């Protein structure tokens, strides 16, 4: 990968004395194996053949890669197994994407967790396997580095994450999402760490469950009482945001694309929104950009390696202006891209998910 990004979205706001890290993340890295082209869900007792398959780093790697491909200096603290799966994920993120893994750890004898994802009928089903995670003190630092922003994944029914408060007190702007609550409790107490956060970005189902509301927009308004900025993703309908600090709302419809694999689209959405926020874009532009990056990601296999870079975004914008396959009124909200996007051709090929996790190098 070229060490210099095609575009630095924060160039206009960078000053001397800024932290070296734009965004800090911590979480679990999986090896994702994705099957697509299934006509229906697998049926018990039968064999199903998929027309497509890809492998790539997954879990928190989805968001880390999406941020790095948008030109943000990204630091990831995670545990990696010392097996071949761990080697592949480490090399893909550090060498392939330029993500700083200085705070990550290789755990001797620990097997990398794996997720198999099957995409069909616009949805996906996942099966995961992993051994007991290493103790936190072996995997990630207790106190995060100074950074412009941090992204935190709230975990239902888990103890509060002390690092989130540490990050906020160091001046980091904390963006949070939340994991699925398998218990079905959806306890609002699980959102206690929002007191340290600037923004919360759940999907519509999560937002409605936690707020006990019947519509995503009502849920966003309730969540905006807990955090300055609540952003609720609406799937095929786009996204809705309430900025209680500024008394502002915004809603953006989803773009029309042919989806191959929805894996990681939510993570790519968060990365796009964080990028626009750090660059001080207006709320509607941040929301539109996040919807765009997520839409482009579902047209490729996998989560992390499906994330678009600036050249892909520029090519989409050139196409959208030249062809009549998007709603023209909706496209007007992307006019801000004209003054932002780079010109020219791709300077390096983005890595994409492939069936095997790597080929042996020829001597």
Proportion of strand residues:
15-25%
**Backbone shape:** globular
- State the major sheet: 8 strands, mixed
Tell how many strands the DSSP assignment holds: 14
Q: What do these coordinates show?
A:
With 363 residues, the protein is an alpha/beta fold. It is 27% helix and 21% strand. It has ten helices and 14 strands. The protein has an eight-stranded mixed sheet with strand order 4-1-9-10-11-12-13-14, with helices on both faces. A four-stranded mixed sheet has the order 3-2-7-8. Helix 5 crosses helix 6 and helix 7 runs antiparallel to helix 8. It is globular. The two termini are 21 Å apart.
Write the SSE topology:
Elements: E1 21-26, E2 29-36, E3 52-59, H1 60-69, E4 74-77, E5 79-81, H2 84-97, E6 105-107, E7 114-120, E8 123-129, H3 136-139, E9 147-154, H4 162-169, E10 173-178, E11 199-200, H5 204-211, H6 216-223, E12 229-233, E13 239-243, E14 248-252, H7 265-278, H8 283-297, H9 310-322, H10 328-331
Parallel strand pairs: 1-4, 1-9, 2-7, 5-6, 9-10, 10-11, 11-12
Antiparallel strand pairs: 2-3, 7-8, 12-13, 13-14
Helix pairs in contact: 1-7, 5-6, 7-8
Provide a compact summary of the structure.
With 363 residues, this protein is α/β, with parallel strands linked by helices.
Characteristics:
about 375 residues, globular
């Amino acid at each position: 990968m070229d060490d210099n990004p095609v575009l630095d979205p924060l160039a206009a706001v960078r000053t001397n004395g800024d932290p070296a890290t734009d965004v800090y993340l911590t979480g679990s890295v999986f090896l994702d194996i994705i099957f697509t082209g299934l006509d229906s869900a697998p049926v018990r007792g039968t064999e199903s053949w998929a027309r497509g398959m890809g492998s790539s780093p997954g879990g928190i790697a989805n968001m880390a890669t999406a941020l790095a491909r948008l030109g943000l200096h990204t630091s990831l603290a995670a545990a990696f197994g010392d097996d071949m799966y761990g080697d592949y994920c480490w090399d893909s993120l550090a060498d392939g994407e330029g993500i700083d893994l200085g705070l990550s750890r290789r755990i001797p004898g620990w097997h990398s967790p794996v997720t198999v994802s099957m995409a069909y009928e616009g949805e996906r089903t996942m099966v995961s396997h992993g051994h007991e995670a290493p103790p936190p003190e072996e995997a990630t630092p207790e106190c995060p580095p100074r950074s412009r922003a941090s992204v935190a994944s709230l975990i239902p029914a888990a103890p509060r994450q002390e690092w989130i408060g540490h990050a906020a007190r160091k001046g980091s702007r904390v963006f949070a999402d939340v994991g699925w609550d398998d218990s079905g409790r959806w306890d609002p107490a699980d959102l206690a760490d929002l007191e340290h956060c600037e923004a919360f970005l759940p999907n519509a189902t999560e937002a409605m469950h936690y707020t006990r509301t019947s519509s995503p927009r009502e849920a966003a308004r309730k969540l905006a009482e807990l955090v300055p900025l609540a952003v609720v993703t609406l799937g095929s309908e786009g996204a809705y945001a309430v900025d209680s600090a500024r008394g502002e709302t915004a809603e953006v419809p989803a773009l029309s694309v042919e989806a191959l694999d929805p894996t990681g689209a939510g993570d790519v959405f968060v990365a796009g929104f964080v990028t626009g926020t750090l660059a001080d874009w207006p709320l509607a532009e941040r929301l539109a950009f996040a919807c765009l990056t997520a839409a482009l990601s579902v047209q490729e296999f996998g989560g992390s390696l499906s994330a678009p870079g600036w050249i892909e975004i520029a090519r989409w914008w050139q196409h959208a202006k030249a062809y009549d396959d998007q709603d023209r009124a909706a496209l007007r909200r992307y006019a801000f891209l004209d003054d932002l996007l780079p010109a020219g051709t791709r300077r390096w090929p983005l890595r994409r998910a492939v069936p095997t996790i790597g080929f042996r190098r020829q001597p």
